[in-house]
């Protein structure tokens, strides 16, 4: 079983869209996937067709030690995909856990204690747009991090900050945390900035960057409104095609235990003269 955290502290970069659609295609390909929704917005829960207003116990109850992980898992309508659901109440967890024991290990402990953990080939954790305690729990529990990113002006700055957090997690709570891959999502190849940002990121993360690129596609934005992954909403869309290719590329690679990465990226592409020289 592999545990994958999908993280980027920047909001709206397609973390949830990637978590839901990667899970759906992998489920469709015969894998058993558990999606843990660790975001109080509960977008992955509703995006997979689960009515969050009907959820009585959620990952919140697990993190504060009231419930086992197993007891809050719901089968989604998508084959092979189960969900550890979230609710807005999860907002409180960050505050409530502050003074508790092993606060960064709450999720890792719950996964390890899960009696049915061997049922799953893959656990995907969707995280909120912050580097707070919830995201730290995800990174502490995970084998690797998948980073979705948009090609925009401040993207590199955000990536540098995320990278620092990953290094901190390696030092403090999870020495073997790997970078699974970086995914360019919501891409518009007509923009010069897109190409420029992609080149900068590739200098830094090299072959960690997925060849698959997710284009901006309106069908991907519509699907959550129907509580469906793109696979069920519009199988013939460009978005579905892209996420299917991502799922295949994901399976074809696996994160090596030893990671070799270049030094942190320059904070901004606006100052190329500041890129470190040997
Ligand atoms: P948050 O940080 O708030 O959790 P997120 O990183 O999970 O956001 P999403 O919710 O997946 O991001 O995506 C943000 C918005 O962009 C959503 O409305 C989503 O439907 C839309 N979206 C995601 N990917 C695409 C795409 N490739 N083309 C068009 N719209 C997209
Ligand atoms: Mg999200």
- Total DSSP helices: 11
The structure class reads alpha/beta
- Distinct small molecules bound, one entry per kind: adenosine-5'-triphosphate, magnesium ion
What is the C-alpha radius of gyration, as a whole number of Å?
18 Å
Oligomer: single chain
| Percentage beta strand | 5-15%
Q: Strand sequence of the main sheet, in spatial order? A: 3-4-2-5-1-6-7
Q: Would you list the SSEs in sequence order as H and E?
A: EHEHHEEHHEHEHEHHHH
Which regions contain 5 or more consecutive residues with pLDDT less than 50?
255-259, 268-278
Largest sheet: 7 strands, mixed
Distance between the termini: 40 Å
**Overall pLDDT:** 90
Helix content: 25-40%
Care to count the β-strands? 7
Indicate the overall shape. Answer: globular
Could you describe the 3D structure shown?
The chain has helices spanning 15-28, 43-47, 59-63, 91-97, 106-113, 133-141, 155-172, 192-205, 218-222, 230-233, 238-252, and strands at residues 2-6, 33-37, 73-75, 81-84, 122-126, 144-149, 178-184. Helix content is 37%, strand content 13%. It has 278 residues and is an alpha/beta fold. Strands 3-4-2-5-1-6-7 form a seven-stranded mixed sheet, with helices on both faces. It is built from eleven helices and seven strands. Bound molecules: adenosine-5'-triphosphate (ATP) and magnesium ion (MG). Magnesium ion (MG) binds at residues 15-16, 39, 43, 126. Magnesium ion binds next to helix 1.
Structural key phrases:
278 residues, alpha/beta, seven-stranded mixed β-sheet, 37% helix, 13% strand, globular, disordered C terminus, binds adenosine-5'-triphosphate, binds magnesium ion
């Amino acid at each position: 079983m592999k545990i994958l955290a999908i993280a980027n502290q920047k909001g709206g970069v397609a973390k949830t869209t990637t978590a839901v659609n990667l899970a759906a295609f992998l489920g469709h390909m015969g894998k058993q996937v558990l999606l843990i929704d660790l975001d109080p917005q509960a977008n992955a829960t509703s995006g997979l067709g689960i009515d969050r207003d009907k959820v009585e116990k959620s990952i919140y109850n697990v993190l504060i030690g009231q419930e086992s992980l197993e007891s809050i898992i719901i089968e989604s309508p998508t084959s092979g995909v189960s969900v550890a659901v979230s609710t807005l109440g999860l907002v409180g967890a960050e505050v409530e856990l502050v003074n508790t024991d092993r606060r960064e290990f709450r999720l890792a402990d719950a996964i390890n204690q899960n009696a049915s953990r061997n049922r799953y080939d893959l656990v995907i954790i969707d995280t909120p747009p912050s580097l707070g305690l919830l995201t730290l729990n995800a990174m502490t529990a995970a084998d690797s991090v998948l980073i979705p990113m948009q090609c925009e002006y401040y993207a590199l700055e955000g990536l540098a900050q995320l990278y620092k957090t990953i290094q901190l997690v390696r030092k403090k709570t999870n020495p073997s945390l790997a970078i699974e891959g970086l995914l360019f999502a919501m891409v518009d190849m007509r923009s010069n900035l897109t190409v420029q940002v992609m080149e900068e990121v590739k200098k830094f993360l090299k072959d960690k960057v997925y060849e698959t690129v997710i284009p901006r596609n309106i069908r991907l934005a519509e699907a959550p409104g129907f509580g469906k992954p793109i696979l069920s909403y519009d199988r013939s869309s460009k978005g579905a095609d892209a996420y299917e290719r991502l799922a295949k590329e994901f399976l074809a690679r696996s994160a090596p235990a030893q990671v070799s990465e270049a030094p942190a990226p320059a904070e901004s592409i606006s100052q190329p003269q500041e890129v470190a020289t040997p």
